[in-house]
C-alpha cells in the first residue's frame, strides 16, 4: 500500500511538497510516483537560481522502465538541489519522503495551499 504522509501537499504529477519554517518549499517524488516509475537509475537536478512557474518541468527522474519530469508544484526560484539524490537515485525508491530533489523559494507562499492534501491525493489514486 502506498504511504501518503498527512503533513505534505501533493501535485497531480505525484510530487510532494513540504513548507519549511523559513518559507521555502521542499519537493520530492511521492511513494506512489516512485512505485509507478520503478527502480530509479538517474536523477537530473535543475540549476540553482532557475525561476519556474507552477507545473514547469524542473528535474528528471529515470528508471529502468521510463523517464519522467518532476514538476514545480508552486512558482518560485530553485534555491538548493539534493546532490545526494543524483549520486544515489535508488534512494528515491527506498526513502521517497526523505529524499527530496530541490528546494524552492516560492513567489507566493500561500500557493502551496492550492495543492492536494493527503486525503485528496489518496482519493485521486
UniProtKB/TrEMBL annotation:
InterPro entries: Biotin_lipoyl, GCV_H, GCV_H/Fam206, GCV_H_sub, Single_hybrid_motif. It holds the Pfam family GCV_H. GO terms for cellular component: cytosol; glycine cleavage complex. The modification N6-lipoyllysine is found at residue 65. The keyword Cytoplasm does not apply. Residues 24-105 form the Lipoyl-binding domain. GO terms for biological process: glycine decarboxylation via glycine cleavage system; protein lipoylation. SUPFAM superfamilies: Single hybrid motif. CDD domains: GCS_H (cd06848). Its cofactor is (R)-lipoate. Keywords: Lipoyl. Binds 1 lipoyl cofactor covalently. Gene3D superfamilies: 2.40.50.100. The glycine cleavage system catalyzes the degradation of glycine. The H protein shuttles the methylamine group of glycine from the P protein to the T protein. The glycine cleavage system is composed of four proteins: P, T, L and H. HAMAP family: GcvH. Belongs to the GcvH family. This is Glycine cleavage system H protein. It comes from Oryzomicrobium terrae. The lineage of its organism: Bacteria, Pseudomonadati, Pseudomonadota, Betaproteobacteria, Rhodocyclales.
Amino acid at each position: 500500500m502506498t504511504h501518503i504522509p498527512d503533513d505534505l501537499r501533493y501535485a497531480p504529477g505525484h510530487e510532494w511538497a513540504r513548507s519549511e519554517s523559513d518559507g521555502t518549499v521542499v519537493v520530492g517524488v511521492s511513494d506512489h510516483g516512485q512505485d509507478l516509475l520503478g527502480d530509479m537509475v538517474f536523477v537530473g537536478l535543475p540549476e540553482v537560481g532557475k525561476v519556474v512557474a507552477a507545473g514547469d518541468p524542473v528535474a528528471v527522474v529515470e528508471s529502468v522502465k521510463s523517464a519522467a519530469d518532476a514538476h514545480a508544484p508552486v512558482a518560485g526560484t530553485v534555491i538548493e538541489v539534493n546532490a545526494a539524490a543524483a549520486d544515489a537515485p535508488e534512494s528515491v525508491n527506498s526513502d521517497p519522503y526523505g529524499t527530496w530533489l530541490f528546494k524552492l523559494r516560492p513567489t507566493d507562499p500561500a500557493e502551496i495551499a492550492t495543492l492536494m492534501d493527503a486525503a485528496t491525493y489518496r482519493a485521486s489514486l
